[in-house]
Design a protein that fits this description.
Keywords: Ligase, Membrane, Transmembrane, Transmembrane helix. Its main location: membrane. InterPro entries: O-antigen_ligase-rel_domated (IPR007016), WaaL-like (IPR051533). By secondary structure, this protein is an all-alpha fold. Helix content is 74%, strand content 0%. It is built from 20 helices and no strands. Helix 4 packs across helix 5, helix 7 crosses helix 19 and helix 17 runs antiparallel to helix 18. The longest helix has 34 residues. It is globular and about 60 Å long.
């Protein structure tokens, strides 16, 4: 019993480290060179915990990994991109980091069954929720924004969208934990309500849309699992809803932007996308090397041209698909696309076959939306990428395969 508790606690600590919720209180909003060094070193314990999980059960970790061949291909291209990177040293460091980050997700999938995996993730969000309420109420100079959006809660992150977006994911995870573990359902539902409260206090409308989408996806899974007839009805309703939503976005985009409080450029994102596409055309097949663009401060590389054409400096492409194309070319983009398609196909099948869909499907739906405006795929030291990989590997290696 004690070893199992230790493994559970260690896994939660692993995810808490990847959440980045400790960065703002530790090094402040603008980390100097010393602060950046602390951030790089601070993730090493998370890597060690992931490797420790693999060492405890290497066979299942390997079985979980090999069932996602496109993930292997994707990480292979990440590492090979060092050979053509415009900044080989930067790509080498970040390729190592993203490989370790990815292996931590695989380790979680190989170690836990759906119910336990949901509770590991839920316990992580519970820690983050409690800490966020504490800093927002007791230490508002850290938890509440004062300049750009005065009064908006940001919790443990640098701006309100960080808190709101994280809690939208948290609601999906906590709700699944409640449904998969009825004995502790009241506990996890309580934290799910607290997560909603943080989304509202962040005043992030984008996060509110993500939350609503997560609720709809969870409802779809619950209805679809009631029987064949309910599943067919839910599927047709979902397809119709998606078609109507796309039509609304195309025909009344100005109304949609007004509801979100955004302009037509999505706060400058479309300018970044256009500028990035110009640079992509220069090296469409191989790209510039994994995450090499954003570390290039030479003043004449692609980062300088993207900044010039966009009119400001961005930290990433603000689109997970463009990010892969820019860094690893069409080969990297194809590998990511195939990995994503395989994962979503497995999630759709799980809706009708496996209760694990209660955990995976809502998260993946929200992830798909966020990935359109943020670079969260194949991201080193990123909480959301760890969760995505863990769920993707778990969908390919479900409980019935572990039991074999």
């Amino acid at each position: 019993m004690l070893p199992q508790i230790a493994i559970f606690v260690g896994s939660v600590l692993l995810l808490v480290l990847f959440s980045g919720g400790w960065e703002l209180p530790l090094v402040g909003e603008n980390a100097d060179e010393a602060g950046s060094a602390i951030l790089r070193v601070a993730y090493l314990p998370a890597y060690a915990a992931g490797f420790g999980l693999i060492a405890l059960d290497p066979r299942n970790s390997l079985r979980a990994a090999v069932r996602q061949p496109f993930l292997f291909a994707l990480m292979g291209i990440v590492c090979l991109s060092v050979l053509w990177s415009i900044a080989p040293d930067v790509t080498t460091r970040r390729a190592f980091a993203v490989t370790c980050t990815t292996l931590c997700g695989v380790a979680l999938a190989g170690r836990f069954r759906w119910r336990a995996l949901a509770e590991v993730m839920a316990a992580t969000f519970a820690v983050l929720i409690i800490a966020s309420y504490v800093v927002c109420i007791a230490v508002p100079r850290i938890g509440v924004m004062t300049e750009l959006f005065p009064g908006a809660w940001r919790g443990l992150w640098r701006e309100k969208n960080g808190l709101g977006g994280m809690m939208a994911f948290g609601f999906c995870i906590l709700s699944a934990a409640a449904l998969l573990n009825p004995v502790r359902a009241k506990l996890w539902w309580g934290f799910a309500v607290l997560a909603i409260g943080l989304v509202l206090m962040s005043t992030s409308k984008t996060s509110l849309v993500s939350l609503m989408l997560g609720v709809a996806a969870l409802g779809f899974v619950l209805i679809a699992r009631r029987g064949p007839a309910a599943g067919a009805a839910a599927t047709w309703t979902a397809v119709t809803g998606v078609v109507l939503l796309v039509a609304f976005l195309v025909l009344a985009s100005d109304v949609f932007f007004a509801i979100l409080g955004k302009d037509a450029t999505l706060t400058g994102r479309t300018k970044i996308w256009s500028a990035a596409m110009v640079e992509i055309q220069e090296r469409p097949w191989l790209g510039y090397g994994y995450h090499a663009v954003w570390g290039d401060k030479s003043g004449w590389g692609p980062f300088a041209w993207i900044s010039k054409n966009a009119g400001f400096q961005a930290q990433h492409a603000h689109n997970s698909w463009l990010e892969q194309w820019l860094g690893m070319g069409l080969f990297g983009l194809a590998a990511w696309g195939l990995f994503y398609i395989q994962t979503m196909a497995l999630a759709l099948l799980a809706v009708f076959r496996d209760r694990g869909a209660l955990l995976a499907f809502p998260f993946l739906v929200v992830y798909s939306l966020v990935a359109l405006t943020e670079s969260i795929a194949v991201a080193y030291n990123d909480f959301r990428w760890v969760l995505f990989v863990a769920l993707a590997a778990k969908l390919a290696f479900p409980d019935r395969e572990m039991e074999r």
